[in-house]
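[step 3/7] fold_predict: job queued, chain A
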Amino acid sequence: MTTSTRTEFVTHEAFSLISIRGHIDEHFVIPTMALDNPTLPIIIDTAHVDRLNSFGLRTWLLWISELSKAERPLFFVRCAPPIVTQANYVANFLGSGQVLSFYAPYWCSVCGGSALELIELRAPTPTPTPTPAPTPAPAPDHRPRPATRLCSACALPLELAEVEEEYFGLIERQATASIPEEFWTLLDAILQRLPEAP
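[step 4/7] structure written:
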């Protein structure tokens, strides 16, 4: 049987990480989680998913549903554009999971160049406030914003290649991830050893 998907499963001391590459299509099978620790959160990395069709979608939904029933924390990191698009339009695509980071596609309207921008969704470390606290200021807006990076070819500003309200719709509906800094530190160290999105 021809496979167009590669998966890698690794258990770390704080979480189990599943990395998925390639096409999520009719050849996609539910990843094997050997030596899994059922007490740990699950993190799914989809940075290298480049396509998802209706056949793969059915298997994906079945898998995510089963993971959600396990009542373990479920997180998604480095979500590729095809994953973000499906999450915005397909009910329960992420199950009980929460997005910690995702890629947004940008392009240059002058030379046609393109780039992916990684956007992280993490709550800032709270600053201790004296008691009694003063009148609270309006909560800071941590919603994703269009990239300010410049085109590597012509040095002009890049533009979002999707409709902003639609592409960021899922992110607008979920709460900012409030996760211990130690968790982020370990996760960042591991993801830095993995290839970035193409």
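[step 5/7] annotate
Strands lie at 5-11, 16-24, 42-52, 74-77, 98-99, 101-107, 114-120, 159-160.
DSSP finds five helices and eight strands in the chain.
exit 0
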